[in-house]
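Chapter review: from sequence to fold.
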Amino acid sequence: MKSVLTGAENKIDVVDVERPVPGPKDALVRIRACGICGTDTFFLHLGGMPTGADGSRRAIPLGHEPAGEVVEVGAEVTDLKVGDRVVVNPQDAPSGIIGCGGERGGMDEYLLIENAEVGKSVAVFPDHVPFAVAALNEPMA
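The token string follows.
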């Protein structure tokens, strides 16, 4: 699958990464839209996440305002189903924030939602709301 990362200063790279596999408590979401935040542009201009006093940086996946469609759910997930349209809480990921320096970004083709739970890690939105509008949920909250 494709992932959007910071490259050098003012450069974005689109790279191939492994598609995540959900565990029993997880869901996999196909991202359909993702807002672009000032934080994304900050990391773009900076060239990544600072890692030390020497000015070194590491590439990071971009995006923390994603909306998408559930394509897989683990056996223990009870309140989500394939086809649900969801927005993602980027701060609820047990392994680290989504975007903003985390290991996964909302501009990935697919996003693993660990310990998927409606009202905590995701919110389901109705079919009549376009994905591009749903992706605005975080700045409008």
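Two observations follow directly from the output. The domain at 2-140 is CATH 3.90.180.10 (Quinone Oxidoreductase; Chain A, domain 1). Helices lie at 38-46, 131-134, 137-140.
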